[in-house]
Every structure is written in structure tokens, then in C-alpha cells.
């Protein structure tokens, strides 16, 4: 059998774009994402990967939800989700502020802070005596908690709700924010 040249393969892939996309999506897409996230070698054989039916997708989502319900370490689950979101959104860092009412006064306090794709849970978990606390009428996080609406701040210098309180504490300059209730 003759050896296939690089030009022949390229010509075939160019004339069969649908096949090429399907092939690379099935064989390499998940592996590339796992490599970029710095994940350990997956126990999954990607050559056996196949498109999921809607029933299979539903089962996976149901199992994921069940895992969340059964896991007693909510912070660990949320931390892992935030790490992956940092990568997917290409965010420099993320933080989780939790709503609470102390002495009848509503406020937001940091629970996970400075989460990034390579972060370690113990370094990001905020202990009660180190919390950063915001009243609901202060900053973008306060505004988002009060309005209960997703907010995208492309430039913090131009946003009326932005407060540089945390930037001053951490010596970090926030340039943009995507905040969700």
C-alpha cells in the first residue's frame, strides 16, 4: 500500500470539512481542553468517545446534580467549578461572595477569593476573621446582589457602582467584572 502524503491528507480534509470537524471534535477536543486545564491524564479512551443522545446528556446532568447534593463539601464543588470557569471565560481570577444578614443587616462576605485555573482550595478559602464584607449598597457585587441581575462591567473606571475598596486592600487593579447573583 502506498504511503499517503501530507498534501493528499490536506486535500481530503479540505474537501470533507464536515468529516474533519466531526473527527477532531470526537478525538481531540476534550483532550485539548483537559491538557490546557492541566488535568491529569484522563482515564477515558478518547478513541471510543461518541456523540451523546439527549437521554445520555440528561443522565449525566442528573448524576452531576446528584453529586452536588450528596457532597458535603460545597466549597470544594464550587471551587472546582470556578477554576474551570476561569479557564473557559479566560478570567484572571474569580471570587465568591455569600449573602448573609448579620444583626439584621444584609451584607456580602467573601467565601472563596482569588480563584484561578491553577489555584489551590486552601489558599482561596476565606476564614471568617479575614473576610472582605460589602453592604448591599456598595460596589458592583452589592449592586448585583440587590438587583439580582447579571452585570458585565467592561471598564471599571466608567462604572458608577465600582468601588476600589478590594483593589486597595489587595494591591490589585480590577479592569473589568462579570458578576452574577
From TrEMBL:
InterPro entries: GAF, GAF-like_dom_sf
Domain GAF: 76-181
Pfam families: GAF
Protein name in UniProt: GAF domain-containing protein
Organism listed in the record: Cnephaeus nilssonii (Northern bat)
Amino acid at each position: 500500500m502506498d504511503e499517503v502524503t501530507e498534501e493528499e491528507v490536506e486535500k481530503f480534509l479540505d474537501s470533507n470539512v464536515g468529516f474533519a470537524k466531526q473527527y477532531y471534535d470526537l478525538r481531540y477536543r476534550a483532550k485539548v481542553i483537559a491538557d490546557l486545564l492541566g488535568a491529569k491524564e484522563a482515564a477515558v479512551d478518547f478513541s471510543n468517545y461518541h456523540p451523546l443522545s439527549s437521554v445520555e446528556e440528561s443522565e449525566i446532568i442528573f448524576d452531576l446534580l446528584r453529586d452536588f447534593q450528596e457532597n458535603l463539601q460545597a466549597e470544594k464543588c464550587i471551587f472546582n467549578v470556578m477554576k474551570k470557569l476561569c479557564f473557559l471565560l479566560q478570567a484572571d481570577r474569580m471570587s465568591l461572595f455569600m449573602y448573609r444578614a448579620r444583626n439584621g443587616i444584609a451584607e456580602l462576605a467573601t467565601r472563596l477569593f482569588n480563584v484561578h485555573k491553577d489555584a489551590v482550595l486552601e489558599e482561596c478559602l476565606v476564614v471568617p476573621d479575614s473576610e472582605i464584607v460589602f453592604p448591599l449598597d456598595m460596589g458592583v457585587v452589592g449592586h448585583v446582589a440587590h438587583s439580582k441581575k447579571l452585570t458585565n462591567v467592561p471598564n471599571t473606571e466608567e462604572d458608577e457602582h465600582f468601588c476600589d475598596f478590594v483593589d486597595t486592600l489587595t494591591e490589585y487593579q480590577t479592569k473589568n467584572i462579570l458578576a452574577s447573583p
